[in-house]
Inverse folding.
């Protein structure tokens, strides 16, 4: 194993869950007239409590007191039948030569469910870190700092893989190098953005060599 720790986000980075998570809102709240795509753009990577507050403000509807439990149950059902890994992720993890973990804003039960359904759990074992463990949500850097510490790596030798702007902001605030995964075809034209998981090992190798040269 090379001395570089890869910290993966979960939703939208390892598993193709953003569409399902936002579809659950449409399924449960008939007054929402936004498309799934627009909800994804608006809520990607954001804390669930802030999403609930935004929905109440935008639509002038008070959510039921037990809505979080209802919502999580619906997401769980959608995951069970429809959740898939992001294209190329299983193949990439199989060949990755660096230690890696998951650091997600989701509860640990959701993280485990997503990895189990997509048969990715054996790659990660118990190297799973949740915002709910420490009470810190992106863009606060706390979760990434916590994950790096638990993995035993200095921040200089960590790389965060994210799909959301709030996640990238959290990594940069923590002082951790970040790469953004985006399914948009023009992604390769931007620095530190990539659109195909098969490219990730080469990108990590370049970062590793760069860090070794500096040390």
């Amino acid at each position: 194993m090379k001395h570089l720790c890869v910290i993966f986000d979960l939703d939208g980075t390892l598993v193709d869950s953003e569409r399902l998570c936002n579809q659950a809102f449409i399924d449960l709240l008939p007054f929402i007239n936004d498309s799934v795509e627009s909800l994804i753009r608006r809520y990607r990577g954001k804390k669930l409590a802030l999403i609930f507050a935004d929905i109440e403000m935008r639509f002038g509807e008070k959510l039921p007191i037990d809505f979080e439990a209802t919502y999580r149950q619906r997401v769980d059902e959608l995951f069970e039948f429809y959740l898939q890994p992001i294209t190329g992720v299983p193949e990439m993890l199989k060949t990755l030569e660096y230690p890696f973990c998951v650091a997600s804003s989701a509860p640990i039960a959701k993280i485990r469910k997503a990895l189990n359904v997509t048969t990715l759990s054996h790659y990660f074992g118990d190297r799973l870190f949740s915002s709910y463990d420490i009470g810190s949500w992106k863009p606060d850097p706390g979760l990434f700092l916590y994950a790096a510490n638990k993995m035993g790596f200095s921040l200089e030798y960590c790389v965060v893989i994210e799909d959301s702007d709030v996640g990238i902001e959290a990594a940069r605030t923590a002082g951790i190098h970040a790469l953004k995964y985006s399914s948009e075809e023009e992604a390769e034209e931007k620095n530190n953005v990539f659109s195909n998981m098969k490219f990730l090992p080469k990108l990590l190798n370049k970062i590793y060599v760069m860090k070794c040269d500096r040390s």
User: Anything to note?
Assistant: The chain has a mean pLDDT of 94. DSSP finds eleven helices and six strands in the chain. The chain has two domains: 5-16+85-214, 18-82. The first strand starts at residue 5 and ends at 8.
